[in-house]
Amino acid sequence: MMSQYTPMIQQYLSIKAAHQDAFLFFRLGDFYEMFFDDAVQAAQILEITLTSRDGGSQDRIPMCGVPYHSSAGYIKTLVENGYKVAICEQVEDPKQAVGVVKREVIQIITPGTVIDDHLLQDRENNYLVSIERENDLFAYVLCDLSTGELKGYTYIGNQLSFIQLLLSQGVKEIVGDEELHTDWNEKMSLNGQASISVQQETTVEEKFQHLTIDITPLPLLKAAGRLFHYLNYTQKRSFQHLKPVEYQQNDLRMKLDAFSKRNLELTESIRAKGKKGSLLWLLDSTMTAMGARKLKQWVEEPLFVKKTIEKRLQLVEELINEFFIREEMKEQLKSVYDMERLIAKISYGNASPRDLVQLKRSLLSVPVLKEKISQIPGEYASEIYEKMKDHKELAQFLDSAVHDEAPVQIKEGGIIKKGYNAKLDEYKDASMNGKAWIAALEQKEKTETGIKSLKIGFNKIFGYYIEVTKSNLSMVPAERYERKQTLANAERYVTPELKEKERIILEAEEKISGLEHTLFLEVREYVKQYIPGLQQLASAISELDVIQSFAAISEQYRYVRPTVSEDGKVNIVGGRHPVVEKVMDAQEYVPNDIFLNNERNMLLITGPNMAGKSTYMRQLALTAIMMQIGCFVPAEQAELPMFDQIFTRIGAADDLVGGQSTFMVEMLETNFALTSATENSLILLDEIGRGTSTYDGMALAQSIIEFIHERIQAKTLFSTHYHELTVLENSLPSLKNVFVSAVEENGSLVFLHKVIDGQADKSFGIQVAELADLPQDVIQRAKTILQTYEKQEKNEALPIQEVSAAKEEVQESQLSLFAEKSTVSRKRDLKENDVLKDLKALNVLEMTPLEAMNALYKLHTKLK
Ligand code: ADP
């Protein structure tokens, strides 16, 4: 029953009812208070004291609070933990309020909508994503509120891969309808990486329609509509800095799924989980935070449009040639601040005076930057030049209005420059004169009274006073001095003329701070009209920054400009893995060639462990990605086609992902690659099939190779330790064997890291054992056993399936079934048929890894 509570608690409860999914920060004087469950939970998370208060009911109400002035840190903790915070302020003057002061939620701070510096990473975007789902189509809009960027996508595929993709892009918050909310919250393991919010409404309101003019797919429009409603609901203000939704058409980009991104260590290294050791880390020589974010976006979304790739490559080449111009550009870029986020703050109305100074400083670098870029030939350079309006007038205006040393706070004064506003200057003069007059008065009184230690001071309660120490009291002119305050060893006095001056000074100061505040708000408001132009400028600067970074890195590591091949040919001479090369200290990286064309589109790579198989495969993928983001590539010479997708799969035994990689996951990933790849894709399969028993694994590996060879014809590199598979070269015309060589030299095994056509010598395992000084008897015996095995294998070698027959049998979406059919069918008995049925019935996409393990275990036991 509401009525049992005090009116204030009733007000609290009714506001809380509308904000169930957020911590309600309820403003009471200088504190934000929380009550009931919010208080109990927040006290725990924030490690603050839980108290209670009387709220009119029988029981006391749990309560905790944080001071308004230090609330930022607490909000940060909550938001970083995935929670939302609804800020509820008093919206009327408590002095004028009748009854309980009116309060309203003025903003809801959520993980995906933060724009405050201390809640954001400089060099990373902070994404909120809004989703509209229609069967297996996901339309979604990525929004970074702190920069105003909106990007629209469509994705077709299974839910799990889609979520992985979102998480790999660093999405902090997901907005969907109630169904998605329930579905994902209950069934999908987001591991606290992103929070899910609900917004049902999907129509695009009129005031946002200018942001969606380029959007045609209806589901995408709905996703955008949902996003805008959510922004409205949480932020409760206008968004002048939101840029139109850029529709990222699928056929204009290289598609990379989350597994591949992770396996290729594009933005994060697998072991350390940090940026270090990733491709992004290697390529990042950007000077600005905006450039760093743009680079990350480019790395995550390589292009599939030859013209744009060439355009970028051209500018990289020009900048490599123009070392001095590039160096001067770099100097200028260093003084460009994070304009995108400054603009967002201006639009939000919370830019500080210092932010405006940073904006001005950034603008002052533009003319020099423009002059430099104007000296560079080419289409892209002039495009950037055109987008770089220097906004001289705005720079001058800001320079005339705001002090260079302006504070962060807007209430402190000291913001507006002299000469900007006559009235303000007048008040400042008055205050200055008054202060000078007081300094003079002190001198005068000293002489007149003869009290050398007499001084004039000021405090907030008594204002200006004349202070005389006890020992000098006899010299005080009692007729003029009026006593004001007595201290332990001094008396304080005022005189009528001092009072009068004080009035003038204090009045002036009050007016100054009031007027400075008003003027600053005006200045900030005025800047708003420049937002679109400034955004264009910011985007031009960030692109220039990325390209200069490419040029710097390409020059430093001797990369070359690749040629985009039109006929699917890969011809890389002296190629290197850029990151491995960079982190190698003592040894030299051994360059390798890669040649592929339509008659040779699959390489089966063998070689001892640690020889460099994975490195060789990744080298090709990274080279392709570098080309498709417009950077030079690590090789002496490189020609390669644009790939529409790259798939990288790693055998489960490698277990790279902290124990998560079970055989089931490996198969799921492989399934995804096989069903989505086209002949324009690149597939890297590293030791696939390794996570199960030898014959199983080999059978799967072989059938996967056959499938790709016949059905997909994608460029494929397949590394394996199953030497038996090398016989496939005889039956599959476009498959070729290569191996990574190693030799024994003076009794030690030396990895040459050189990739050569043909197949590897298999006996290195025993050689390694020999190196480890195992007894000669053991080694000799092992060699004999090995020979026996080899003989047996020759007799038993699995016949290569009639490929066309396999083709008939293959079921595209059910890899395990397909693998089973094409290879093991000879041995199948009824029991196995049963197991198959069970397997078919599993709803794999809805299972947790643990459930999958259990199911797998059950099937396995049945077969025993
Ligand atoms: P594999 O996949 O054959 O087990 P990796 O590709 O993981 O082997 O390579 C093992 C190590 O060998 C790498 O970590 C790297 O240090 C080194 N390596 C690989 N390729 C080269 C190369 N071309 N030149 C120099 N060192 C290399």
TrEMBL record:
<dbReference type="InterPro" id="IPR017261">
    <property type="entry name" value="DNA_mismatch_repair_MutS/MSH"/>
</dbReference>
<keyword id="KW-0547">Nucleotide-binding</keyword>
<dbReference type="GO" id="GO:0030983">
    <property type="term" value="F:mismatched DNA binding"/>
</dbReference>
<dbReference type="InterPro" id="IPR045076">
    <property type="entry name" value="MutS"/>
</dbReference>
<dbReference type="GO" id="GO:0006298">
    <property type="term" value="P:mismatch repair"/>
</dbReference>
<protein>
    <recommendedName>
        <fullName>DNA mismatch repair protein MutS</fullName>
    </recommendedName>
</protein>
<comment type="similarity">
    <text>Belongs to the DNA mismatch repair MutS family.</text>
</comment>
<dbReference type="InterPro" id="IPR007695">
    <property type="entry name" value="DNA_mismatch_repair_MutS-lik_N"/>
</dbReference>
<dbReference type="InterPro" id="IPR016151">
    <property type="entry name" value="DNA_mismatch_repair_MutS_N"/>
</dbReference>
<dbReference type="Pfam" id="PF05188">
    <property type="entry name" value="MutS_II"/>
</dbReference>
<feature type="binding site">
    <location>
        <begin position="607"/>
        <end position="614"/>
    </location>
    <ligand>
        <name>ATP</name>
    </ligand>
</feature>
<dbReference type="InterPro" id="IPR007696">
    <property type="entry name" value="DNA_mismatch_repair_MutS_core"/>
</dbReference>
<dbReference type="InterPro" id="IPR000432">
    <property type="entry name" value="DNA_mismatch_repair_MutS_C"/>
</dbReference>
<keyword id="KW-0238">DNA-binding</keyword>
<dbReference type="InterPro" id="IPR005748">
    <property type="entry name" value="DNA_mismatch_repair_MutS"/>
</dbReference>
<dbReference type="InterPro" id="IPR007860">
    <property type="entry name" value="DNA_mmatch_repair_MutS_con_dom"/>
</dbReference>
<dbReference type="InterPro" id="IPR027417">
    <property type="entry name" value="P-loop_NTPase"/>
</dbReference>
<dbReference type="Pfam" id="PF05190">
    <property type="entry name" value="MutS_IV"/>
</dbReference>
<dbReference type="Pfam" id="PF05192">
    <property type="entry name" value="MutS_III"/>
</dbReference>
<dbReference type="InterPro" id="IPR036187">
    <property type="entry name" value="DNA_mismatch_repair_MutS_sf"/>
</dbReference>
<feature type="domain" description="DNA mismatch repair proteins mutS family">
    <location>
        <begin position="681"/>
        <end position="697"/>
    </location>
</feature>
<dbReference type="Pfam" id="PF01624">
    <property type="entry name" value="MutS_I"/>
</dbReference>
<dbReference type="InterPro" id="IPR007861">
    <property type="entry name" value="DNA_mismatch_repair_MutS_clamp"/>
</dbReference>
<keyword id="KW-0067">ATP-binding</keyword>
<dbReference type="InterPro" id="IPR036678">
    <property type="entry name" value="MutS_con_dom_sf"/>
</dbReference>
<dbReference type="GO" id="GO:0140664">
    <property type="term" value="F:ATP-dependent DNA damage sensor activity"/>
</dbReference>
<dbReference type="GO" id="GO:0005829">
    <property type="term" value="C:cytosol"/>
</dbReference>
<dbReference type="Pfam" id="PF00488">
    <property type="entry name" value="MutS_V"/>
</dbReference>
<keyword id="KW-0227">DNA damage</keyword>
<keyword id="KW-0234">DNA repair</keyword>
<dbReference type="GO" id="GO:0005524">
    <property type="term" value="F:ATP binding"/>
</dbReference>
<dbReference type="GO" id="GO:0003684">
    <property type="term" value="F:damaged DNA binding"/>
</dbReference>
<comment type="function">
    <text>This protein is involved in the repair of mismatches in DNA. It is possible that it carries out the mismatch recognition step. This protein has a weak ATPase activity.</text>
</comment>
